[in-house]
Write a structure and sequence with these properties.
The protein is mainly α and 311 residues long. The chain has a single domain, classed as Up-down Bundle (Rhopdopsin 7-helix transmembrane proteins). It has eleven helices and three strands. The chain has a three-stranded mixed sheet. Helix 1 runs antiparallel to helix 3, helix 1 packs across helix 11 and helix 6 packs antiparallel against helix 8. The protein is globular and about 65 Å long.
Amino acid sequence: MSNQSFVNEFVLLGISQNPDVQKIVFVLFLSIYVATVSGNMMIVVTIFNSPALLASPMYFFLAFLSSMDVCVSSVTAPKIIADLPFEKKTISFRGCMIQIFCIHLFGGVEVIILTAMAFDRYVAICKPLHYSSIMNSRLCGILIGVAWIGGFLHSIIQIVFTSQLLFCGPNIIDHFMCDLYPLLKLACSDTYVFGLLVVANSGCFCILIFSMLLVSYGVILFSLRKHSTEGKRKALSTCGSHIIVVVLLFVPCIFEYARPPSVFSFDKMVEIFYTMLTPLLNPLVYTFRNKEVKNSMRKLWNTLMVPSYKK
């Protein structure tokens, strides 16, 4: 990569150049990151310590989704937090490529996992008699493998083309992280074809999957008219949580990549929402709206709080 570029590092302008604002953002982002990791890891630990939850494909996928939220947040948040106290914020060319690869890898995996979760709810609600035979452990393992392969292919395509661009200066990115469109703005070579690739590989892909998910949940909700009142209530609660998470993930991604290559001033706010707030909100959505998860967390907490001599 370095042989194809005159730029060895990029200078990140960050969120603000005001020292007072940076101090506030440092405390805020550190708090958000700690809460994100703690909340998501609590869900993972709770599910893996509850055999009843772990045996359910829905909670198995939920644990995996929470682990991906930790990964997405960890790609950007530690770097942002570490840079805030310093006036000059830099990232190497290789580090920039790694950051882009990881954010698209974990983001791509999340997209496919959410699709798998929608399929799981469709089978559970529309084909309940065949649920155990369809959603077996083998299929869950295959879906996780497909998620990793799909996320890797999506990300590696971006990196292969990005690494071929020439960067001969300037090297100042008006952002707090490396992203595709800010980099395209700095490239010395022609970026028209690559811009179209980004729109197709990220933007159109997100629109297609988002539309499919909305249609699938529409079918699920339509089929609930035949269920009992209690069944409707439980299904609506579960599907409602899924739909909220889908909207939180897809809307920022569609806004960022389903448009002609360009950079707007409010792109930073959208990226903050996607990389930091969405991973924080996901565990809150699932925890507060899911009785089984809350009960399992309470049991796990009580177990940890009981002194060993009383066990």
